[in-house]
Amino acid sequence: MMKNWLIYFVAVTAAVLTVACEKSDEDGYAAGEGGVVMNLANTRAEEASGLKLADCTTFIYQKGTDADTSEPVETLVRMYEHGNCPAKIKLLAGNYSAKVQWGEKPKSAHFDNYFYEGSKDFTITAGQTVQVTVSCKPQSAAVRVEYASNIAEKLTGYAAVVALPDDNDPNTTDALTFSESRTGYFTLPEGVATLDWSFAATHSETKVEIHKSGKIVDVEAGKRYTLKFSYSDDLPGYISIGIEIDKTTDYYSDVMVFSQDPEMNGEILNSTDANPQDFTNSGTALTMKANGKATVDEASIYVVEDLPAVAAMAATRAATTKETLVWDWKTADINDSRVKAELSSDGTILKVTLSPAFFSFPIGDTKLCFKIKDSNQGTSNKTATIRVNEGIRSVVPESDCDLWANTVTLHAVSSNGAPTFKLRQKGTTAWKTLTGIVATAENEYTATFAAEWSASKNVNNLDVYEPVEYTGVWAGHTYEAAVEIGGHEYFTSFVTSNGDAIPNGDMENKDASCYGTENSDASKVIWGSGNNSITSSLCKPATKTGMGGANCSKLAAAYKFSNMAAGNLFLGTFTMNGTKGTVDFGIKYTYTARPKGLRFKYHAKIGNVEYNQKNGPLPVGNPDQASVYFTIMDWSVRRAVTSGVGTPAGMWSADAQADLAGCGAILGYGTMFISGETEGESMIEGYIPVQFYDKDAGAPQGNYTLTIACSTSRYGDYMNGNSENVLYVDDFEWVY
User: How large a percentage of the chain has pLDDT more than 70?
Assistant: First the structure.
């Protein structure tokens, strides 16, 4: 294999077409006309000796501007095929471009077709003949393959293949096969600057098959790349490949090992998709062998998955399989009992024994790829298909998981009695175990894992529940599942869906109703605020260090006309009626997964209580409290809270009741109270866990099921708080 590629070039001499013009008062031009007289000079090129004007095709384009788009355009006004170009071309005064072509443009790769092209802008002035020179340059890269005489003496069936990277276009010829010394031409697609090459042959004496490959990089049109192959008598089994830059300067060669690639043998390698090998508890063994005096350098095993077909991108071929490493000789844990590897004393043979524990794949077929690399850089790989008829079935999250109930049902097949089922979140070490439950089919077993809950009393002595960490299944996580049957374990893994987004939770919409004074239209409002014509700055878009995106929400308290108003933001609507404002809390929201908590960003500056105008709970002089809370509920109507001039009405607290009179059930809630000033100038992360009143209720659907509310003063409805409090909030999202 070539290790340190040095690519050298021999430039192909350019063909130059001279458009020679001379000024003359006797050219007989009509009014507004000028002309071009065409000649050809400096025509000799290495690949096109004796090029003449009559061999070229000439195009003349008039340059102008599109009347509709004002974009520059070129309009073909003359075309002269081989031998038809006149000595003088008369044109109306204006701006033009001449393009000259020689040869046939190949589709992409060709042995005989090469192509020259050039263009030049020029201007015609009335009554004059202009002088223009157009250089025709080669548009293809030339690749020369040369074989020394000893190649034919030592090898049979030899050939080098040079190819463009696969552009997935069936109308192009991507590769040329060089069975003898000759030159080929490649027209490179835009953005492509690499050519692939491979060499194959059979040694005439040993009958060893040879397969080698490499790349030519930084390929440019108009340059020649020469590959020279020769067999080394001094180093039997080696081939020298020279890459030429200039016939008159340095010549370098790189030595490639020319030996048989490594090989692999073992019963498992005889299995295929059509004839898979059934797993047995005895395990299996295989050998990996290096040839040609090489030693084993690398060995690995991958699980291969077939991927759905996708549209191929330009100049690439879409991936059809995915390989996941399951064992690597160099990095494997020596205590890993699944695979045992023994290297022979001379380093040429690696014996790999796969224990029954290695075959812990889900029920069905699993394709494995075995790979080896030797010290001569030779490589081999083989695939095998293993069929497991007993064990765990692959988990299908869409049907096996309930992300609101936080359950997963595992399925297993066992002819050895009920298995033991195991589950854990990936990245943790503790397994949760369940014994099997016999299903209706013979030897079929299922087990359902559910979340476990811890019970406690909240501040109002009500029973609330929180999930025990790493129990059940939750949105947006990877889980590992296993069953143990007759002392053998079978494994699978699965990923749950990502859960639900909070609408406009990123606070990026500067036109949201909460930033204006119209928050009453229930068909349009998601996030509302108490902004009105008197206090219009209770919630505004803002920027703050540490926020996500380009925008956050700034809640600022105010004191107007002898009344204190807390800055506020909530999911719901707000209606102003005279001197009173009414908040209707709650929006309709669909849950596909149960959340564990609410995460957001905030920064607060909260002072001491200045006002207590409506008999609120906090005495003047005490620290004020900003609040952020949410409620997961099942309400038939929104909850209305009215405050302003007069006695406030409708106030409620989620931690005070599991059922709100006139609205409906509260399934879960979370609260956070903030005093003082957030340290530093940057927003920080806040987290509020969900405390569930009813952990067994199904996901609420169709009713008013979510509210989130933020206030610079916890008791702002009572005009109880500080009029200079400020609270920044941003990026509300569920945690699962």
Answer: 87
